[in-house]
Design goal:
six-stranded antiparallel beta sheet, 16 strands, about 575 residues
């Protein structure tokens, strides 16, 4: 009897020692794999992590092992092997929900295309074979959902509240893959999770049409309800609502992140951003524009929207759970987290797109008080763009010299503008170009104007290339005119467009600057003979933005054809 007890004790001790040795071997193997990884020895590191993932029993550390192994294969250009690794792990460990969750993430990160050859699908790799290229984003989405669906019971049984919320959040991300914007209508269908998707189906659609948010019998848009359970959902839209609702209910840690995800999708469907493609939305706004009616987006309340849906452009109210502005407000004012700061930025952008500039400014002021100016003072800069004077000149048609050049300018919040016009010395510029090419002929090649970024002189046409990078103040020395223009800004930080008459009459090339330093740098110039043109440039000595007004006087002679005028060109 004593012998049996001693034998049993020895066996137990041997088992414990072997388990301890196995754990020690795994830790040592991970340490060696990490060392090879840090050295950039991707293949050796993968072999060691693959050995760890080949165990019959895997711990929670297998999640990090899988992530590291996938990075190594990606660095080696062997994306096709990541597929096989994921399939093997999911099939071998169906109850390891954490591993399956990571597998779904890795699948979503893979290239969503590949080649079908010899009845096998292979993602792009350095060992690519010939075959038929296919887009497989839909197949990857369906497979990730299938894996998560099968792991859901195990997760609900053993996961903590935060872990289960993270699982549901990944479900939401997988459901929303390629379902934003004009592909959101596809959430009306119910993805089949009873079988694996077919990657070899060459007749499966690769691209889907773009459509606006679907409607019910031509009236209100489709709003998805929250089903009683995952299995009772009648569409992927209802599955999405269920996953989002479960995440918000289970974990405060993921609540804000989930609400922002939901608000982003709602904005892609029902916000005024959907009107950006419409011609009226891109046209200039005159000072006499009617500020009422269905297209007056600045008159919208926070509970309604103006959007383009499947039945056309409509103004309608949004339920609170489908209202991105209300959702973002709750996140913004709910805490002091990074998600709250991001929600504030999104909220300010939403009001800017609605042309409700005073509301946007109020949100930015509150964000600055609570979260500071932000990296690079971006919140302060965004606020200044709304409340401080800003202006820009519009690109326009050519104008003849001798009649006084006229500029079209748009501005806001400014009560006056001081302009200075300087004449450009074209002869000096042309002489510099001559000297450059003369030195080049003698083998004395050097940078133009001793500027290492200008190997050759800029071309004379078009004008924006001539004066975008050139040190224009080198040639703008003679002041030709100076004048002050009183301005009357519109209320609510709205833009006003006016015509600016200049005292410039003589043909020539001029640099016109606004001394108040609030003119924008964008331009669309051109070079015309005996015409007045304009081009905005940025001077190199300060942040002053300027316009170039060009009027080049040329002698013309006609050849046999009276329709074509040829300018005289002096040779170097």
């Amino acid at each position: 009897m004593l012998f049996r007890w001693l034998l049993g004790g020895c066996m137990v001790a041997m088992i414990l020692l072997s388990v301890g040795a196995g754990k020690l071997d795994d830790d040592q193997l991970r340490s060696e794999a990490l060392q090879r990884f840090n050295e950039g020895n991707w293949n050796d590191a993968f072999q060691k992590w693959n050995e760890l993932l080949s165990r019959d029993q895997l711990s929670d550390q297998a999640v990090e092992d899988l992530r590291s192994a996938a990075i190594c294969l990606n660095q080696l250009g062997r994306n096709d092997e990541i597929d096989r690794l994921l399939y093997r792990l999911v099939d071998k460990h169906p109850a390891h929900w954490k591993l399956i969750l990571e597998a779904a993430r890795q699948l979503s990160a893979l290239p969503s295309y590949g080649m079908v050859s010899d009845q096998e699908f292979q993602r792009p790799s350095h060992r690519q074979r010939g075959g038929v290229w296919r887009q497989v984003a839909d197949q990857d989405r369906a497979l990730a959902l299938l894996w998560l669906d099968r792991a859901l019971p195990a997760a609900e049984k053993s996961a903590s509240s935060d872990e289960l919320a993270e699982f549901y959040l990944q479900l939401a991300h997988s459901l929303l893959r390629d379902r934003h914007g004009k592909h959101g209508w596809r959430l009306q269908s119910l993805t089949d999770l009873s079988k694996k998707p077919d990657y070899l189906d060459l007749e499966a659609p690769e691209y889907w049409p773009e459509r606006n948010a679907p409607v019910v019998n031509g009236n209100p848009p489709v709003f998805y309800d929250v089903p009683a359970s995952w299995k009772e959902a009648k569409s992927d839209g209802e599955r999405l609502r269920w996953a989002i609702a479960q995440t918000i209910e289970l974990s405060p840690q993921f609540r804000e992140q989930t609400n922002i995800l939901w608000a982003q999708w709602l904005q892609s469907q029902f916000s005024v951003d959907t009107l950006a493609q419409e011609r009226w939305f891109l046209q200039k706004v005159s000072t006499t524009e009617v500020q009422a009616g269905i297209l007056a987006i600045h008159t919208l309340s926070d509970d309604e929207t103006l959007a383009r849906i499947a039945s056309g452009i409509h103004r309608f109210e949004l339920p609170k759970e489908h209202n991105p502005i209300r959702i973002l407000e709750d996140v913004f004012r709910g805490s002091m987290s990074e998600s709250a700061a991001n929600a504030g930025k999104m909220l300010a952008d939403a009001y800017l797109n609605r042309r409700q500039y005073e509301k946007a400014a109020a949100i930015l002021r509150e964000s600055i008080d609570r979260f500071g100016p932000g990296p690079g003072d971006f919140r302060v800069n965004a606020l200044h763009d709304i409340i401080q004077p800003r202006g820009a000149f519009d690109p326009g048609d050519s104008q003849p010299a001798g009649q006084g050049a006229k500029l079209s300018m748009v501005f806001r919040n400014a009560k006056s503008a001081d302009f200075v016009a300087k004449q450009i010395d074209l002869e000096a510029f042309i002489q510099d170009v001559k000297n450059f090419y003369k030195k080049s002929e003698r083998g004395q090649q050097e940078e133009f104007l001793a500027d290492k970024y200008m190997t050759y002189p800029p071309p004379i046409e078009p004008l924006e290339q001539l004066f975008t990078d050139l040190k224009v103040e080198r040639y703008a020395k003679v002041e030709a005119a100076k004048w002050t223009l009183p301005l009357e800004p519109r209320p609510g930080h709205w833009d006003r467009r006016i015509e600016v008459s200049t005292p410039l009459q003589k043909a020539g090339l001029y640099l016109v600057t606004c001394e108040r330093h609030w003119i924008s740098p964008d331009c669309m110039p051109s070079w015309m003979r005996e015409r007045v043109n304009r081009c905005r440039v940025s001077t190199s000595s300060s942040s002053v933005f300027a316009w170039i007004i060009a009027a080049i006087a040329c002698d013309w002679r006609r050849k046999a054809s009276p329709r074509k005028a040829i300018p005289k060109v002096r040779s170097f």
